[in-house]
Design goal:
Pfam family, one: Rieske
Shape: globular
Strand content: 5-15%
Number of strands: 13
Number of helices: 15
Keywords: 2Fe-2S, Iron, Iron-sulfur, Metal-binding
GO molecular function, one term: metal ion binding
Helix content: 40-55%
Bound molecules: FE2/S2 (inorganic) cluster
Radius of gyration: 23 Å
Distance between the termini: 49 Å
Protein name: DUF455-domain-containing protein
């Protein structure tokens, strides 16, 4: 029975594959892939269509009075392969006499799109899809059968897999400038995207290589390459379960020509001009690329039970942040202000350092405080550029904002997942995500989390008001001793560092207890300034 509304039909005629994420009333998540077959493409491998071609295809379909049934063949299946968890977004689609199958990019197991069965004996879940006319408007709508394990599922993300930035993979630095998302200047990289000596073989190795790459162009290129390789089966191992995983740097390096200053020294306030604002945002996006790789490289080995969907979500985030950085950098060239020509600060990384011992803390502070704060202030920033008549920058900022909603969603998804794991370890004793989140903020944040809030987009991302109303951090620096005592207080569940986290930290030679940085008060204040101006 079709119970979950996906979208009006015309909205999914633009592409053949979509990442589809559902959330239930109980705030559980379910990751799916929607395939739409057409008579001309069902047997084709992944297609990367240009915008013009896509527009023509939509016109063709909308003008197709014949009711071509094949054009309406829509399938929904699990987002990850039941064998070893590969992402199915780049599966090959192969058509046989009586069936159509999706072929996993990692080990080539094929799964019937209708039944989910594979000849190997494995089976994935597939869901019935129906196209129904709205009784009032007659609009054709796509609905699907509800997954088990939750009530009142609704779509929180429906995003085309095809993305000009994501595919095909870059072959050289010049490919970036060719498609208009980056502009070469003093930052051109001299190293190859894939190192000739000891090329990375796993996602963890790529993550650490990218974190250690100071050149922003090369960081973007390597991100594009690694994510594409992971999705298409050129990399078939996450690599987080090996005995000696690669160690991420304490802080990713920056090019020596870049001037890193104390957060308070960055121009702020009402007089910041457009170029300065765009430069500040590009700086945040460059750190955001690193944050997405760092959460995988740092916490993957600590939490070996993290499912493949975790790495799929955060590698997608790394790719999004690379796209954002490139789009902003292209806008900066329009203002004759190359990226790196103004000072930058590293305040966002201070929050990463502060939360480097606990995945719960990292998800809470980076994704549910910092990124959620971005949702509050982005519309105001967009409004400023609209008033200035800068349509190109408005377009860029709107793309960024839409993606950021999905990043907060991912933060919420994995925060809730961590709480569920903790609940299971405690024999079912309730671990309430809202309470745990508020405790993390109390412990790892300084000062009030102030509105006005973008309630609508926060809700889309899973953050109901109970998460953030009257929220206050009580972290007080530089009283390290007091904070260490608070962090290690075993009466507070959320303040505990898991045994796995402690074990991996000890192997890596880190001291026990939380990690602090000097000047954190100034750093956090600067982050707020960055978002709020
Ligand atoms: S066949 Fe899909 S992960 Fe192995």
């Amino acid at each position: 029975m079709a119970e979950v509304f996906i979208s009006p039909l015309h909205n999914i005629l633009s592409h053949f594959r979509f990442i589809l994420t559902l959330r239930s009333e109980e705030r559980k998540y379910h990751g799916l892939i929607l395939f739409r077959l057409s008579s001309s493409s069902s047997s084709a491998r992944y297609e990367d269509e240009g915008a013009d071609q896509r527009d023509r295809r939509v016109d063709d379909l909308e003008n197709d009075d014949s009711g071509n049934a094949l054009n309406r063949q829509i399938y929904v299946m699990e987002a990850t392969c039941p064998h070893l968890g590969a992402e199915m977004s780049h599966a090959d689609i192969e058509e046989y006499e009586d069936s159509v199958v999706a072929v996993c990019p990692w080990h080539r197991y094929d799964f019937d799109l209708k039944t989910g069965k594979s000849e190997t004996g494995l089976r994935t879940c597939t869901y019935d899809v129906q196209i129904m006319a709205d009784p009032k408007t007659g609009e054709e709508q796509v609905w699907m059968e509800a997954p088990q394990g939750g009530r009142n599922w609704r779509v929180v993300e429906l995003r085309p897999v095809s993305d000009e930035f994501a595919d095909p993979p870059p072959e050289s630095i010049s490919s970036l400038s060719a498609n208009g998302v980056a502009t070469p200047h003093a930052q051109e990289a001299t190293e190859p995207v894939v190192p000739e000596k000891n090329p990375p073989k796993t996602l963890m190795e790529w993550a650490v290589l990218i974190l250690n790459t100071p050149n922003p162009t090369l960081k973007v290129e390597r991100t594009r390459y690694a994510v594409h390789a992971f999705r298409t089966g050129a990399i078939t191992s996450v690599g987080n379960k090996v005995a000696h995983p690669p160690v991420p740097p304490a802080q990713p390096p920056r090019e020596t020509y870049m001037t890193i200053v104390e957060p308070g020294k960055i121009q702020s306030g009402k007089r910041r001009n457009k170029a300065v604002m765009l430069h500040a945002l590009a700086n945040i996006e460059q750190w955001a690329i690193d944050l997405a790789w760092d959460i995988m490289a740092r916490f993957g080995p600590m939490h070996k039970d993290l499912p493949p969907a975790f790495f799929a979500d955060f590698s997608k985030m790394a790719l999004d942040e690379s796209k954002h950085f490139s789009l902003l950098r292209a806008r900066l060239t329009a203002f004759s202000t190359p990226y790196g020509s103004l000072p930058i600060h590293a305040s966002l990384w201070d929050s990463a350092t502060l939360t480097s011992r606990s995945l719960l803390s990292r998800l809470a502070i980076i994704h549910l405080v910092h990124e959620a704060r971005g949702l509050d202030v982005n519309p105001k920033t967009i409004e400023k550029f609209k008033k200035a008549g800068d349509k190109e920058s408005v377009d860029v900022l709107e793309v960024i904002h839409a993606d950021e909603v999905t990043h907060v969603t991912a933060g919420h998804r994995w925060f809730v997942w961590m709480c569920e794991q903790q609940q299971q370890r405690q024999g079912g004793l309730e671990v309430n995500p809202v309470q745990v989140f508020r405790e993390e903020v109390r412990r790892c944040w300084h000062g009030d989390i102030k509105g006005p809030f973008n309630v609508e987009d926060r809700e889309k991302a899973g953050l109901s008001r109970e998460f953030y109303d009257d929220l206050k951090g009580e972290m007080s620096y530089p009283d390290h001793e007091e904070n260490a005592r608070m962090t290690m207080n075993k009466t507070t569940k959320s303040a505990e560092i898991s045994p796995e986290e402690t074990q991996v930290e000890q192997k890596r030679g880190n001291r026990e207890g939380p990690v602090y940085t000097d000047g954190i008060q100034e750093a956090l204040a600067a982050v707020r300034v960055t978002y709020e101006t």
